[in-house]
Write a structure and sequence with these properties.
This protein is an alpha/beta fold. It has a single domain, classed as Lipoprotein like domain (Double Stranded RNA Binding Domain). The chain is built from 3 helices and 5 strands, in the order H-E-E-H-E-E-E-H. Strands 1, 2, 3, 4 and 5 form a 5-stranded mixed sheet that branches. The longest helix is centred in the C-terminal third of the chain and has 27 residues.
Length: 159
């Protein structure tokens, strides 16, 4: 039993020396942002759910990193979804590209410590059936929201 606990301690020490840690992302945001709240994002697009999808993706990414906070969190992310557009990206209209543009700010105790504008694109296949085409467009919007959230948080992190 002693050898097993010693082996675990040795493995943790070795991983720690390689730069690995068990708290993904914790401590990499600016000082004071140990817990971060995400406010609802302003939505300036024709997609009614774009702001909510990006805010939810930011919350999920913060939770994965172990730094999600509630109303009492000293830091918060605010932002605007400025554009959500789609257009055919192939000559025969078989493929479409959804583009999502988001502007976000990280505030600690009311002061802006980081700001970032990201633009992400997501391709999806078109469909003859309008309902199937809309379903694929919405899935592309969700994937774009996830990608935007990752890019925003990575840009806020210290190297």
């Amino acid at each position: 039993m002693r050898s097993r606990s010693g082996l675990c301690a040795l493995a943790a020490l070795a991983l720690g020396g390689c730069g690995y840690s068990f708290a993904a992302g914790a401590g990499r945001l600016p000082e004071g942002a140990e817990r971060v709240q995400v406010r609802p994002l302003e939505n300036r697009t024709g997609d009614a759910e774009a702001g909510a999808l990006v805010a939810a993706a930011l919350r999920e990414e913060l939770a994965r990193r172990g730094i999600s906070g509630g109303e009492e969190a000293p830091a918060r992310i605010e932002g605007v979804v400025e554009r959500s557009a789609f257009a055919a990206s192939s000559p025969n209209n078989a493929t479409f590209r959804l583009t999502l543009e988001v502007q976000a700010r990280l505030l600690v105790k009311g002061e802006v410590v980081a700001a970032r504008r990201v633009m992400v694109g997501e391709d999806y296949l078109g469909q003859v059936d309008a309902l199937a085409a809309e379903g694929r467009r919405r899935l592309a919007l969700r994937r774009a929201a996830d990608a935007a959230a990752r890019q925003i948080l990575e840009s806020f992190e210290r190297p």
